[in-house]
Design goal:
Layout: H1 2-15, H2 17-43, H3 46-54, H4 57-66, H5 72-77, H6 86-104, H7 107-115, H8 126-165, H9 169-198
Helix pairs in contact: 4-6, 7-8, 8-9
Length: 199
């Protein structure tokens, strides 16, 4: 009986395109499921699980917050942990991140970030952001003025060299006027920078 069924089965298989297509679909589906299962297991190997369990997620979050990193940084880091661990990791991470943001969002740090020309990614909580942005914009203005002064210094140097080579009196007078104007502009910039630093 079994051999007859087997012969008939393979006979039908060879003669039926529908049956052959169905079997191929099942085989492909099983192979795909097996592959995905294997990849899932590889993603959460014992080594990865130990690394996830031994990581100080509070400290990782605190460091990210202190650097002003956005919440998307956690998404990248969560790839190390199995799904059942992610709720705990997320809580620890954001508790640390909030502590780090207290340092990052301080007015003093806002001024320093602005003065160094660094961008701000809108990560500060609303209660802290107003004072942070006030100082950040001051720092940005200082950054702009200091850049302008560097350009002025470069221009003064170039004009001074021209002045040494200039022979016609009218040319020398024009260069002197330009130099005086540039030096006056720089003095004004310096006074504004001093006021921004002290206020």
């Amino acid at each position: 009986m079994g051999s007859i069924l087997s012969k008939n089965f393979f006979k039908d298989f060879k003669g039926s395109g529908r049956l052959r297509g169905s079997l191929l679909f099942v085989i492909v589906a099983l192979a795909s499921t097996s592959t995905l299962w294997s990849l899932g297991c590889a993603s959460f190997s014992p080594q990865a699980e130990r690394a996830c369990a031994s990581t100080d997620w509070y400290e990782i979050g605190r460091q990210d917050g202190a650097k002003g990193h956005g919440e998307e940084y956690l998404d990248v880091r969560l790839k190390e942990c199995a799904p059942e661990k992610r709720d705990l990791v997320t809580r620890l991470y954001f508790t640390g991140r909030n502590a780090g943001l207290v340092d990052y969002c301080s007015p003093t740090n806002g001024f320093n970030l602005g003065r160094s020309g660094q961008p701000y990614a809108r990560v500060c909580p609303s209660p802290m952001e107003r004072d942070f942005l006030r100082e950040y914009r001051k720092g940005q203005r200082v950054f702009e003025l200091e850049q302008a002064n560097r350009q002025i210094d470069h221009r003064i140097g170039s004009l001074s060299q021209e002045l040494e080579r200039a022979i016609p009196l009218e040319v020398r007078n024009g260069l002197v006027d330009q130099l005086n104007e540039l030096r006056q502009t720089k003095r004004v910039n310096d006074l504004e920078i001093q006021g921004l630093r002290t206020n």
